[in-house]
């Protein structure tokens, strides 16, 4: 498929597939491209190169972590590994995909979401950050998360994003870039099977909670309810990276019968009437 470019002086035709996949080839082949389009294609080329560099860095970090972190499988890892017993909910919409290369434009054209939930695989500060706790998922640099086209997926609605301690400022910057205003936060106090506080690892203090920041964009989705639930969840810690079911229930109470999207989802977070996208589904 091709499209005529009326702004070029020679009347060349621009191959859309080349524009999508080989911007550097188009720049060289069509010297009369409009300046703005040339800049965009150059920027896309730079981003592709940067992503390749970051993917190499991630692979190196993963290799370092895998060889330097001693770990004995615990209950979370064992539970996470028993996928032969797993059955997906009947009405969930799982999409197994790499979020860095997924066609977000096509999804945005098909559906605008009332609520977007994200649990990014934040890159920790050091090469051996876990001090004996294994990382069972790939981490992503902030720039990869920041470049996700969240703004395209939602004209009006709420963004829920899980954050670790040293990423608060970064998430506020991301919200601003994507067009959101911070409106609330939710604290998950982790508990053991005996209902005791499940203390985890931390540099100065032992962490027994996780925080989900809430942003809002545009107007409230139709049917939004107010003053619901509580901003504190007391819930048992379950599988690796598995977030409490109470959060999903809270979201569905906030925006009943809404259109829900989870990014960086895992099998253990699949839920009826949610679109879930992740590379571990």
TrEMBL record:
GO terms for cellular component: nucleus; RNA N6-methyladenosine methyltransferase complex. Pfam families: MT-A70. Residues 37-64 form a coiled coil. It catalyses: an adenosine in mRNA + S-adenosyl-L-methionine = an N(6)-methyladenosine in mRNA + S-adenosyl-L-homocysteine + H(+). PROSITE patterns: MT_A70 (PS51143), N6_MTASE (PS00092). Keywords: Coiled coil, Methyltransferase, S-adenosyl-L-methionine, Transferase. One of its GO terms (biological process) is methylation. One of its GO terms (molecular function) is mRNA m(6)A methyltransferase activity. Its EC number is 2.1.1.348. Belongs to the MT-A70-like family. This is mRNA m(6)A methyltransferase. The lineage of its organism: Eukaryota, Fungi, Fungi incertae sedis, Mucoromycota, Glomeromycotina.
């Amino acid at each position: 498929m091709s499209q005529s470019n009326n702004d070029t002086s020679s009347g060349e035709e621009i191959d859309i597939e080349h524009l999508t996949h080989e911007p550097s080839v188009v720049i060289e082949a069509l010297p009369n491209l409009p300046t703005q389009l040339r800049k965009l294609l150059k920027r896309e080329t730079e981003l592709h190169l940067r992503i390749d560099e970051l993917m190499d860095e991630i692979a190196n970090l993963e290799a370092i972590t895998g060889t330097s972190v001693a770990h004995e499988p615990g209950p979370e890892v064992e539970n996470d590994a028993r996928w032969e017993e797993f059955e997906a909910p009947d009405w969930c919409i799982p999409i197994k995909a790499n979020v860095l290369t997924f066609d977000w434009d096509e999804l945005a054209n098909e559906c605008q979401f009332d609520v977007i939930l994200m649990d990014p695989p934040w890159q920790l500060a050091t090469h051996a950050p876990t001090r004996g706790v294994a990382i069972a998922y790939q981490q992503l640099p902030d720039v990869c998360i920041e470049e996700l086209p969240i703004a395209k997926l939602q004209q009006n609605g709420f963004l829920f994003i899980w954050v670790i301690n040293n990423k608060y400022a970064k998430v506020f910057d991301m919200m601003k870039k994507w067009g959101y205003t911070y409106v609330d936060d939710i604290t998950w106090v982790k508990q053991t099977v005996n209902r005791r506080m499940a203390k985890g690892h931390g540099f100065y203090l032992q962490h027994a909670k996780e925080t989900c920041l809430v942003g809002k964009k545009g107007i409230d989705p139709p049917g939004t309810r107010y003053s619901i639930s509580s901003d504190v969840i007391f819930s048992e810690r379950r599988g690796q990276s598995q977030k409490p079911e109470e959060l999903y229930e809270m979201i569905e109470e906030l925006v009943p019968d809404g259109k829900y999207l989870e990014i960086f989802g895992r099998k253990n977070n699949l839920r009826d009437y949610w679109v879930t996208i992740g590379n571990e589904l």
